Structures are given as structure tokens and as C-alpha cells.
Amino acid sequence: MFGDMMNMMGKLKEAQKKVEETKERLNTVMIDESSNDGKLKVTLTANRTIKSISIDEELLQDKDMLEDYLILTLNRAIEKATNVNETEIAAVAKEGMPNIPGMDMFK
Q1: Mostly located where (predicted)?
Q2: How far apart are CA 10 and CA 59, in angstroms?
Q3: Could you report the per-residue pLDDT of 74-91, keeping only the tens digit for each?
């Protein structure tokens, strides 16, 4: 039994390392999102860090419109990045989970 426990602990540490490596890799996965008319473009990492924002000159003339565009476009980009992030992390975590009775919620 002690050997099984040590084996499980080793697998958990390995899974944790893979999750950390995946998080690092997700810093290089870029998510691009644009407003419907292309006047605002944002790029985020899959870890939800904003990398760039491109704003059409027309939007700079209307503060309220720019704010609306930013909210809508950033929220869509964050949603996409979150989906990529959660899918990647869940896949790595599931792959590395040892077979522990009663812990099959990740399977």
C-alpha cells in the first residue's frame, strides 16, 4: 500500500508539472478578436493577458462608442481565451490523474 501511495504521489507531482508547463505554453497561444466591423482588434494570450489593441481612428472621436467596443470585444476575446485555457488545463490534468477510487469526476 505504501508503494501505491508513493506511486500516486509521483503521478500527482508529474501531473502538476505538466499543468505548469501547459500554463507556460498558453502564454504563447494568441487569441485574436475583432469588433464586427473591424474597427477594434485585440489580441490576448490563452492565459488572458492582453498583448495588443488596435483602434480605428473613427472610434477615437467618440469616447462612449470606444468604451462599448472595448467592453464587447474584450469580453468575447476573454471568453475564447478562457475556453482554450480551461480545455488545455483539463486535458493535461485528466491525463495525469492517478486512478484513485472515488475520484473519477475528472474522467
Answers
A1: cytoplasm
A2: 54
A3: 999 999 999 999 999 888
AA identity, residue 38 = G
- Rounded Cα distance between 27 and 70, Å, is 22
Which residue shows C-alpha cell 501531473? Answer: 15
**pLDDT (tens digit per residue) in 87-103:** 998 888 777 665 555 55
Q: Hey, what amino acid is at 16? A: Q
* Joined grid coordinates for residue 11: 503521478
What does pTM read for this prediction?
Answer: 0.76
Distance CA 1, CA 26 (A): 37
Instruction: Locate 22 and state its grid cell.
Output: 501547459
Sketch out the chain's domains with CATH numbers: 2-106 (3.30.1310.10)
Provide DSSP, 59-99.
Answer: GGG-HHHHHHHHHHHHHHHHHHHHHHHHHHHHHHHHHH---
